[in-house]
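Q: How do we represent a protein-ligand complex in a form that can be generated token by token?
A: Start from the inputs.
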Amino acid sequence: MAADPDSTVSESIATRSSRHRESRRLVEELDRRILTVQADVRDAAALKEAAARAVAELGSLDIVVANAGICEPAKWEDITADSWKDTIDINVTGVWNTITAAAPHMIEAGNGGAVVITSSYAGKKVQPMMIHYTTSKHAVVGMTRGFAVELGLHNIRVNSVHPGGVATPMGSPGVMAAIESSTKENPKVNQMGQPFIGPGWMEPEAIADAVAFLVSPAAANITSEHLSVDQGMQYF
Ligand SMILES: NC(=O)c1ccc[n+]([C@@H]2O[C@H](COP(=O)([O-])OP(=O)(O)OC[C@H]3O[C@@H](n4cnc5c(N)ncnc54)[C@H](O)[C@@H]3O)[C@@H](O)[C@H]2O)c1
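Then emit the structure tokens for the protein with nicotinamide-adenine-dinucleotide bound:
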């Protein structure tokens, strides 16, 4: 794990501006409007303000993707209290904050809608050497079901997506090296989660495609479901 338990959090926050610029460019290229807001998902008030601004400027809120997350691999005895807290605060409470900021606008509009929560292979099976991350990704499975029941009353569907390895900064060589060094004492755990197809990692677009399906009319009858995009690794 990183020497500074906060380093993953600060690095994640620092990458956001450039990703926002890229998102803006891609959306505007399609002649569509976009509002980007930089906020910490731990800050419920900031998310509420962002959702209200989006509705005021763009007219409605129909789709919510709660995707922010951190991952700090470490053996159980090396997970610090700070790393545990950051992981639960961002990966679990951050998802709660995101949905509770958005849902009232969807309910008020009365048009239904779709929510997708990004969980993980670690939310279906287990990712060795990250008990905090695995805990957080299982927690949002329960959260998906809970919101699906209550928001279903308003025709809002709630599903989770469970990626395997994705080529993003979270799947960067530094993080992979940390996992590898953490598993040195117990190498057999490295045999877990082998893919049935493909190399065991994917481009982010593979996950975006699954999210686009879940929020589309093609998934109109799917709610409270947990869709894996993992090349089969959950069953190995
Ligand atoms: N990369 C993988 O192999 C993989 C596998 C399974 C699941 N996931 C999940 O996919 C989601 C996206 O991860 P990624 O692979 O793009 O990782 P990433 O590190 O590249 O991106 C994480 C994103 O979360 C944002 N973020 C982190 N902390 C935040 C905070 N406190 N407030 C607001 N935003 C914050 C970052 O700015 C960044 O945009 C995460 O929920 C992650 O757990 C990733």
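The beta strands are 63-66, 113-118, 156-163, 165-166, 201-202, 226-229. The two ends are 26 Å apart (CA to CA).
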